[in-house]
Amino acid sequence: MKLRFLSALGILAVMVSACGAAAVSSSEAAGSAEEELFTLRIVTQTGFNELNVADALGFFRDEGIQIEYTGVLSKGVTEYQLIEQGEIDAFTTGHPPNVAQARLAGIKVKVVSPGMVDNPDPNFAHVRYLVKPGSPIQTLDEAVGKKVTVSSISGCTTGYVQYYLKSKGLDPDSVEFVVIPDSEALLSLSEGLIDITVTHPPFAGKAIAEGAAREILNSWEIFHSPGAGLSVRGFSEAFIAEHPDVAQGFVNALYRSHIWINSHFDDAKKIVAYYLDLEPSDLSSFYYCDDKEVREDYIREWFDICEEIGLWEKGAIAPAEIIDNQFTPKDAPAGDADLRWEPGV
Question: Is residue 113 located within the same domain as residue 249?
Fold first, then answer.
C-alpha cells in the first residue's frame, strides 16, 4: 500500500476559532455560575457530528456537563493516545477498529455509546466514492493503480477500499492512498491531482448536487448494513470508574442528539455549519443510531472486515471486549420534537 501525505491549507485555524471561548475547568469554576458543571475535554470536531448539536441545544448542560474543545488532532496522533496522556477525557470520532487497536496496544478504553450508522438513502451514506464529472472511471474496481484520497488510514477509508478490491479478486496494495482532509479532497480532484476521493459528510453532498463530482459507489452498496458504518464514542476504563455519573450524562446527551438529528436534518446542518464556518447548503449529513445500547452484532461486522484485510489476527480481540453497556440512556423528552436552533438564539 503506497501512502503520501498532502498538507492541510488552514483547517486547524478555522476549526479552533469556530468553537468559541475556552471552557473553565471544574476546579476554577468554584464560586461561579459554572460550579456544578463538569468540564469534559474532547477534540474539536471537523465533520458532521452529533457532539456540536448536543452542545448547541444544551443537552450536555442539562446533564451537568460543559464541553471544552481542545483543538483538532495533529497528524499521526490519535484520541486514544491523548486519553492515555490525560489530555482529553473522551473519544468522539472513529469506529470500532480504532478502539480494538487501542486496546490491543494496551490502552484500556471502552465504547459507551454508538454514533452514526450507514443508511440506504445515498444522502446519508457513510462514505461516498467520487470522481470528476468527466472521468473515465466508472467503478471502484478501477481504483487499482490509481491515486485515491483518504482523510486518514483507517478501517472506513483505506479499509473499505481494500476490502472491496480483495472481494473482487483485485490487488488492494496497488492503490496509492493520498492522505488529505475531506475539506480539500474535492479541490484536488477538480485539479486532477488524484483520481478518486473517499469522502465523508459533510463535504460530498454539495459537490454532487452542483455537478462538481460524480459518485461511482457508496459504502451502503458495498456492505448493505447499518452496522458496517457504525461509529463509536467512549472513555477510558479509569474515567468510567471515577466518573460514572458523567459517563451516564454523556450517553444521555448523545442519545437525545441522535433522535433529534434524525428528525431535524436541516436544523442539524445549521448547527454543524456554524461550528465549521460553512454554509448549511454545503453539507451532507450522517444518519444516527437510535439504539439505546451498543450492538455487538454491529461490532462483529466491523471486526470481520478488519480480520479479512489483516488489521489483526482473527480472534485476537472479541467485540464484547470493547463494549460497556451499563449506561442505558434516558428517553428523549417529548418537547425535543419542537426544538429549533438559529445562530445567536
Answer: yes
